[in-house]
Amino acid sequence: MNTPLLQVQDLRVTFTTGRGAVHAVDGVTFDVGAGEVLGLVGESGSGKSVTLRAIPRLLHDNAAVSGRVLWHGQDLLTIPDERLRAIRGGQVAMVFQEPMSALNPVLPIGMQIDEVLVAHTDMDRAARRRRAIELLGLVGIASAATRLDQYPHEFSGGMRQRAMIAISLAAQPALLLADEPTTALDVTIQDQILTLLLQLVSELGMAMVLVTHDLGVVAETCDRVAVMYAGRLCETGPVELVFNRPRHAYTDALLRSMPGDGAAGAMLTPIPGQPPRIDSPVPGCAFAPRCSYAEPRCTTERPVLTAYAPGHDSACYAATRLPARVEEGAA
Amino acid sequence: MSRGAWLVSRLLQMVPTFLLIGLAVFVLARLLPGNAVMALLGDRGSDEAVARLTRQLGLDQSIGMQLLAFLESVLRGQFGTSLAFRIPVTRLIAERLPVTLMLTGMAIVIALALALPLAFVAALKVNRWPDLLIRGVFQVGLSSPIFYVGLVLLTVFAAWLRIFPVGGYGDTFAEHIYHLFLPAVTLAFSLSAIVMRNLRASILSVIRAEYVDFARAKGLRSRVVLLRHVLRNALIATVTLVGLHIGSLLGGAVITETVFAVPGVGRLMVDSIFARDYPVIQALTLVLAVLVSLAFLVTDLVQMWLDPRVGR
């Protein structure tokens, strides 16, 4: 692969709260290539959404962020506001989880598209309106011209998410950061939105980081996957490799707890226990207390990311003891 | 429901409101000690004169007929003649009302001009020194009685520094503004404190909203994010608050006009009460009550303009 589009290096995010510091993201490193779809997976509180929001510097004052986020060779964490603003929404756009709360309730949808075009293009008013209509058409919203003057509460949930995607695409970004874009939607709509996103990504040649807790979604949509647990990266690699030959006990456990896996009627295996509280960091592997493969050093020494195949890294002492999920060669 | 239908029903709601106000004023006038005849004639009226006046004023009719007659004359805009000034009440109020409207209008403008920017500064520097300073100063504004603020301003700016006149209203529009400035500041004091605190709190909650993060993620300038996305949403709650305070603002005008000798309806109200000028009291009560309901209407309209979800 050439120089990746986005390089996240040793990203750390610490929140100062009333009860002390919380290390929400603890040294996360990954790359996203041009046109690539990366799935960022983890349970609630694993730090996946915080990681995503740290990339365009969207976190609030109570978050201390360190590490590097390289975009075309410049570190988004340190460039001046003015240059960051041109990249935000222009080259790196974001889709939020909950369209009802992410769309401004008192502004017409058309204006919420228009302001992106004003910020990032030289189009005149008429051209911007044409572009806005075109965008709504692109995301599958019918009678776009009338829809432009309507407000978010006049849209259904699925249509709202489509509108938000249209807003994000307005300035033709090269990278889309999607924060659980289907979680807030009805199951029947989820698939439509996901299909739409994938179709747009391939049509427009965008890259996408898709944050989700749904491994099924990752299997369907992503080229590569990065698994997070308690603010740390466990395993990253091509989706097929990670799903067929997981190299981290947590990934293995996640895959076993996923429905639709194995023979019909096979039992799901839940992961026992709860994720650790990240305000009390553990010395070893954060997953060790819940891990069925844990050995003594797992609780005292922290495993580092090690390559098991080209582009397939994992931080697990049990990596070689984990069973392959499909017969080698059959995959 | 369409917005037009909402507006029509909102206007229709005012009909029963006005009827109730009229009824309340009618009842109040009859609850006051003494009656209009005694007030007009004093203690020395002959029995014959009393009887004649009672008939003239329609007080010998049944209470229902009296109410109808009262409502009818109100609808024709006739409130009788002032006992103290010997001129029609309508003319008296028409002379005085613009003064009070201008005073409260200026007070609202001054209060908002102070409160809007300072609420922003306080919210953006939350819990740091600008916030603490602004809140501290406004706390004083909030806890000072209006007549005290008026007297202090009067002493400092009119008596010592001689920048502003001690009282009166002047003759030209520019003079009106000049004369009403100190009273308006006095009146604006507590309103601006209330608005500042409310708006600061509502900015603080809006600024954490997802749509504000989304606006930042779009690469908008911070000025656009703050004015279009934060302020507009934050104002929705504050507009209601300002509307609700119009009533107490008119109450404050009574005190302010007295302290600054401003010839508005507030002062007229005080004078009339002391003079037992019932026709004026009755008419003023009615006019002020109608003004307050009109202020609520304007509040609702602004609300509707700010928030498209209202009335749909």
Description:
- With 331 residues, chain A is α/β, with parallel strands linked by helices.
- Chain A has 2 domains: 6-227, P-loop containing nucleotide triphosphate hydrolases (Rossmann fold, 3-Layer(aba) Sandwich); 237-261 and 281-321, no CATH class.
- Helix content of chain A is 30%, strand content 23%.
- Chain A contains 11 helices and 12 strands.
- Chain A has helices at 48-54, 81-87, 99-102, 109-120, 125-138, 144-147, 157-169, 187-204, 215-221, 239-244, 249-256; strands at 6-17, 20-32, 37-41, 63-71, 74-75, 92-95, 175-179, 207-212, 224-229, 232-238, 306-309, 312-314.
- Chain A has an 8-stranded mixed β-sheet with strand order 6-7-8-3-9-10-12-11, sandwiched between helices. A 4-stranded antiparallel β-sheet of chain A has the order 2-1-4-5, with helices on one face.
- In chain A, helix 4 packs across helix 5 (125-138) and helix 7 (157-169) packs parallel to helix 8 (187-204).
- The longest helix of chain A is centred in the middle third of the chain and has 18 residues, at 187-204.
- Chain A is globular, with a radius of gyration of 21 Å.
- Chain B has 312 residues and is mainly α.
- Chain B has 2 domains: 3-75, no CATH class; 91-306, MetI-like fold (Orthogonal Bundle).
- Chain B has 13 helices and no strands.
- Chain B has helices spanning 3-12, 14-31, 36-41, 47-56, 63-75, 89-124, 129-143, 146-160, 173-206, 210-217, 222-259, 265-275, 278-306.
- In chain B, helix 6 (89-124) runs antiparallel to helix 7 and helix 6 crosses helix 9 (173-206).
- The longest helix of chain B has 38 residues, at 222-259.
- The radius of gyration of chain B is 24 Å and the shape is globular.
- The N and C termini of chain B lie close together (6 Å).
- The chains are: A alpha/beta (331), B mainly alpha (312).
- The interface between A and B is medium-sized, with 33 and 25 residues.
- Chain B: It comes from Limobrevibacterium gyesilva.
- Chain B: InterPro entries: BPD_transp_1_N, MetI-like, MetI-like_sf.
